[in-house]
Amino acid sequence: MINASTIGGVNRLGDKEKERIYSRIIPRQLLDQLEIPPSLVDDDGHPLLRLKCKPGSNDVEMNLFHKDGFPDPALYGHLTDTLTGKIHILLYILNDPNSPRFDVDRMPDGSPTRFGILQRNLAAERAAMENLLAPGQIRRGLRMLPVAISAFEDFVTSLGHNIYFAEPLYYHNAVIFERYGFTYQMGRKMMERIEEGFAESGDLHRLLDDGNPFRAHAAEHSVRLRSWAIHDGLLGEPFTNVTMYKQVGRKAGVNTCPSCGW
């Protein structure tokens, strides 16, 4: 009998069972808002949920599209197992497919940027920033993180866990996770150092320059603009080695940016 308490275990199940289990991650409100059939198949028989979860692997990538042929998923998730068999979110994205797209993920020639890690499409990034998006966002979000967390915790609980981990790709992700009950396994000292650096007498504050749109002085008290400045290299090092965890149902986490708005 297969023990389906881990991603690796679920991946050893049959295709239908894997889809049944992984679809628990999808908030019902997302299906309703984007008029996605509960069957996750459109009227022409095209599957709208696409999974990469080969038997023998311990990770899964899921793409949920609101309609067949659309270039970007409404929900993208990449999950894996920790060494101790806990669920670890490597990447989780909610896109509003009805909002404008900004090509921060690719260069004008089509080559990938890995969301600005390999290379940066500066024109697209500036347009995204001016339209109130954060680093890495190709479209506006769906503004349903609370229900997405609730659905994800139902999924985690169904596998027999009461704790899970997440890898914030950017500074703003970490601050948002804090506000929904996450705390740090690694990286809290970096977050506290960033908060101190953006204080009026801090070293990062002194590097702000309104001549550089990604490092404007308005970043002092803005999570989103701080994240753009950090993405632009303000720290002098990449924003990496930050891992967070959450107990299922926990509402309050740490707060490393108490004076910041969005």
Describe the structure.
By secondary structure, the protein is an alpha+beta fold. The chain folds into two domains: 1-99 and 139-166, no CATH class; 171-262, no CATH class. The chain has nine helices and seven strands; from the N terminus they run αααββββααβαβαααβ. Strands 1-2-3-4-5-7-6 form a seven-stranded mixed beta sheet. A hairpin with a 6-residue loop joins strand 1 (49-52) and strand 2 (59-64). The chain is globular and about 55 Å long.
Structural topology:
Blueprint: H1 7-11, H2 15-22, H3 28-34, E1 49-52, E2 59-64, E3 75-81, E4 87-94, H4 122-130, H5 145-158, E5 163-166, H6 171-179, E6 183-186, H7 188-198, H8 203-207, H9 223-231, E7 243-247
Parallel strand pairs: 4-5
Antiparallel strand pairs: 1-2, 2-3, 3-4, 5-7, 6-7
In DSSP terms (H or I, runs of 4 or more residues), the helix count works out at: 9
Uncertain stretches of 5 or more adjacent residues = none
What topology, given as strand order, has the largest sheet?
1-2-3-4-5-7-6
Give the helix level as a range of percent: 25-40%
Number of domains: 2
Run of helices and strands: HHHEEEEHHEHEHHHE
Rg, nearest Å: 19 Å
Structural class by secondary-structure content? alpha+beta
Q: Report the strand count.
A: 7
The best one-word shape is: globular
- Ends distance: 48 Å
Q: Main sheet?
A: 7 strands, mixed
Strand portion = 5-15%
- The residue-averaged pLDDT reads 96
